[in-house]
Amino acid sequence: MPDVGGIAGERLRSFIERIERLEEEKAALAADIREIYAEAKGTGFDTKIMRQVLKLRKLDREDRQEQETLLDLYLQALGMMPGSDGGSEAESGTGGMPDDRDQAAE
Question: pTM, whole model, 2 decimals?
C-alpha cells in the first residue's frame, strides 16, 4: 500500500491488525473470566465480594488502609456503623449491608 498524504499505509495496516488481534484476545479472556465467575457463583461464592477482593488485592497496603479508614468514616457519618447515631439501616437490622435479595439480581 503506497503512502497517501504522508501516511505509510502498510505501517498503519500493521498497527490496525495488531490492535484487532489484541481486541479478539481481550474478548476471549473476558469470556473466560465470566465463566470462572459463573463457576464460582454456582459453588456458592458471592461474585460481588470476589470482585471487591480482586480490587483490594491490586492496591498496596497503605492505599487499602486509607480506603478502609475513609469508608468507615463515611459509614459512621451516615449512621450505618454499630455505635453510630443510627439510621434506617441500623434500625432494620441490615446494618446497611446488602441482603440476599440484592445478590439475586446479579
Answer: 0.61
